[in-house]
Every structure is written in structure tokens, then in C-alpha cells.
Amino acid sequence: MAELVSIITPAYKAAGYIEKAITSVQQQTYPHWELIVADDCSPDDTGRIVARYAEQDPRVKLVVQPVNQGPAMARNASLGKAQGRFIAFLDSDDWWLPRKLELQLDFAGRSGAALTYTQFKRVDQDGNNEGRLMKVPDRLTYRMLLGNTAIATSTAMVDRKQTGDFRMTKTYYDDFALWLKLLRAGHVANALHEDLMRYRVLKGSVSRSKVNSAKKVWSTYREIEGLGIASSSVYFSMYACNALLKYLRF
Known about the structure:
Blueprint: E1 5-11, H1 18-26, E2 33-39, H2 46-56, E3 60-64, H3 71-79, E4 86-89, E5 95-96, H4 100-111, E6 115-123, E7 133-134, E8 139-140, H5 142-146, E9 157-159, H6 160-163, H7 174-184, E10 189-200, H8 210-224, H9 229-247
Parallel strand pairs: 1-2, 1-4, 2-3, 6-10
Antiparallel strand pairs: 4-9, 5-10, 6-7, 6-9, 8-10
């Protein structure tokens, strides 16, 4: 029996991008999925667009957040509805290539990894001008991930049969915090070296603020992972170097 994949998508003011994300899921060669989009109280047409797709395709499901609480809580709202063994993440402004689920599920089965991730390319805000292939390390343990930026959210897939149920922590880098939590429990993340996702770089994106990002990474080490100043400094230096190499050129 084919395993169901639950796809988790938080959406806020995503009216200009959400259709591309949804159609990229509908075009997957692997058909056994549910896409759960949590509209985080968007002031634009995001909810109405998703609702239209949900009316036409029962695999697309809309969750409406009563108040805006940020991506972590929106992801948790979707996770609360998820029925699949596998949880895949897709941000509302990104999209997948057609064989993403097919290839990653096969890889997850062959590797036995609880967390898998893939390569990807960046594109500009309009979805054009593809950047270079973003290569990733073969595997990541907890300590390796502390100093790395390799797992892009929209490439990640988790096997809940191995990890058990989980929720996001309400923090700036809730995705990074989740990967650390899973690996801290003893799981290992394995990479599928296939280009399967497009990451849209938005102008003025908060995540592109290097100073703010640096502060939030430091906060993750100190407040969530409970690391001392010395350890945090070592891992932060590694993280910063990897981030610099990653973003040195488009």
C-alpha cells in the first residue's frame, strides 16, 4: 500500500505565489498526498485562492488561523490535521519539481533515514533567473547540523513512523529547531543528491537580514539548545562560514 505524504504549508500574504506551490504539488508523479495549507490570517486573497483549489481537488485542504501567529503556529495547525506517515514541508513561495516526492520517498526507504533533504536552486522574486545548484552534505548528525545551513525547509521530509508525532517550537527558526530536535534524539539526516526544489528569494525578506538572522541563530543555540557560550561560539562560527559559502554567489 502506498504511503500517504502530508505536505505542510504555512501561508501569509502569499496570493502572488501560492498557486505555483499548489500546482507543483498537483503535478507530482507520486499521487498519494494531502496538501494542508494554513492561512495565517492573510489580508489578501491567499485563503480564497487555496479554497478554490480545495473545492476542485480534495487532496488540497485549507486551515484558517483565527489570528496571525507566525509560521510555526501555522505549521502546527497543519500538523494537527496531518494523516500521513511522511511529513513534507513546502513554503508558500517555493515550488517542487515533478519527481520530488517519488524520488525522495524511494530514497527514504532505501536509506532508512528519519529525515531526508535534497538539493535545490534559488530563483528571483518573479520565479526567474535560476541560480547555481545548492549542493548538500551526504548526512548530518546533531552536532554537524549545529554548524550547518544545509537543510532547506521545502526540501525536508520526516518519517513519523520513526520520529513519532511532533510539533514546531514557536521561534524565529522553527524549522532549524525541529531538525535539531529530531537529530538530538538520535536520528540522522540523509541527503538525496537530486535537484528537486526552487527557493524563491523575496525582496526585503526578513530571513535575508544577515544581522537579524545571526541573532536568531545565536538565540537558538543558547535558549533552545541550552549550549554554553563557548560551544555556541564554535558552532556559530561554523554556521556563519557555511552560510557565507552558501550565499556568496547566487
